[in-house]
Amino acid sequence: MHPIFLHYPIQVPTKQVSEKPYLTFLDQSYYYFVIPTNITERYALELYTIASHFHQQGWPQVTCPIPNVHDQFITMIGKDKYMLCYALENNSQQNDAAKLSSFHRAGFAYPYQPSSISSYGKWKELWIAKIDQYEALYQHLYQKRPASFFVRDFVNIFPYIVGIAENAIQYMNQVEKETRFHEYDQPTIVFGRYHTQLNDPFIWCNQFVFDHPVRDMAEKLRSYMSERNGISSEQCKSFIQNYTSDLPLSVFGWKLLYARLIYPIHLLEIMDQIQSSNENIYSFEHIIENQNVYEENLSTFFHQMGIDDRSINSIQLDWLWNL
Q1: Whose CA is closest to 302, among 232, 198, 207?
Q2: Rounded distance, CA 34 to CA 85, Å?
Q3: In the chain, which segments carry CATH 3.90.1200?
Q4: Which of 60, 161, 241, 270 is 20 to 30 Å from the Cα of 5, by its Cα?
Q5: Which residues pair with 34 in a beta bridge?
Q6: Fold category of 3-89 in CATH
């Protein structure tokens, strides 16, 4: 038995079924997850109310924090902090787009405005702060001696990444002036970085963010952007059509989605992995090749989406005209 269960007024599950991504126990149909955390009690309470809401909306696979015997969601074991969560396994057979629009609809119905996880209307400030953070990494590597080929490549590509990020921030200045909204431009529950979480057996509440629904749409499309003919592929078009048939995007929504695709989150994530790895696991030639394809898809994005960019007064970035 894990010692955390001594702090909870529940029947102790005795069957351990997994160690990854978290220590997991099974009791009849319920799964219990021992999740290491550094979040505050207030943050955990918000996750509890959100997860409880999704359970009521028919999403029992969302992991829900459990209050301990002291009616708190954070439990100390020695010097470490944990949340104990429970959920049922996902058995949904919906396609990915239908799941995502359904999940966003459930999030629209959430009756409160979270404070700990809200990024709605804050993208520009968050992007600037993130670039400042990586500037510090860049300066550290720039001063590193002796410099490996890998570090030199990284130092050489970083100013380009900053330039792309600044373009996205400038584009957001124009997006913020857009007035053509509709009801689906309100915030909902999304993921910090969406890929295919809704197809997983469980949905981890500690990945939730309160934000515009196109945040998830953009991250889903981002996976196609580095593939030649990726966003014109049948798979990508089917996803977009299925999602927007349920939750159409406004002019503001399309522009916001495009701004997020401009911002080079995928390149910054590679830098995160570089920073945490002692091995040169990336080929910069491959990164640059993929980014060339990504830029080509950006330059024709609205056309490939079947949208006349004149009808939404889209602002075309100058450097994309020359691709």
Answers
A1: 232
A2: 7
A3: 123-200+212-321
A4: 60
A5: 23, 84
A6: Phosphorylase Kinase; domain 1 (3.30.200)
Band of pLDDT at residue 63, cut at 50, 70 and 90:
very high
**Residue 323 — very low, low, confident or very high, per pLDDT cuts 50/70/90?**
very low
Closest CA to 223 of 234, 214, 236, 212: 236
- Asked if residue 41 lies in contact with residue 76, where contact means CB atoms within 8 angstroms, the answer is no
Statement: the pTM of the whole predicted model exceeds 0.85: yes
Measured distance CA(322)–CA(293) in Å, rounded: 14
Residue bearing the bigger pLDDT, 311 or 192? 192
**Whole-number Å distance between alpha carbons of 309 and 135:** 34
- Whether the CB-CB separation of 45 and 52 falls below 8 Å is answered with no
Question: Which neighbouring-strand residues pair with 62?
Answer: 203
Say if residues 214 and 249 touch (Cβ distance below 8 Å): yes
CATH match of 123-200+212-321 with 3.90.1200 = yes
Average pLDDT over the chain reads 89
Distances (CA, A) of 31 to 3, 93, 321: 17, 20, 52
CB 155 within 8 A of CB 138: yes
User: Which structure tokens are listed for 32?
Assistant: 């219990």
Which secondary-structure segment (H or E) carries 84?
A: strand 80-87
Give start-end residues of each CATH 3.30.200.20 domain in the chain.
3-89
Q: What is the pLDDT of residues 251-293, one digit of tens each?
A: 999 999 999 999 999 988 877 776 666 555 667 778 888 899 9
DSSP assignment letter at 12? P
Residues 6+ apart with CB under 8 A from 320: 295, 298, 299
Residue given tokens 């997983």 in the structure block = 200
Q: Which of 323, 260, 261 is nearest to 292 (CA)?
A: 323
The H or E element spanning position 81 is strand 80-87
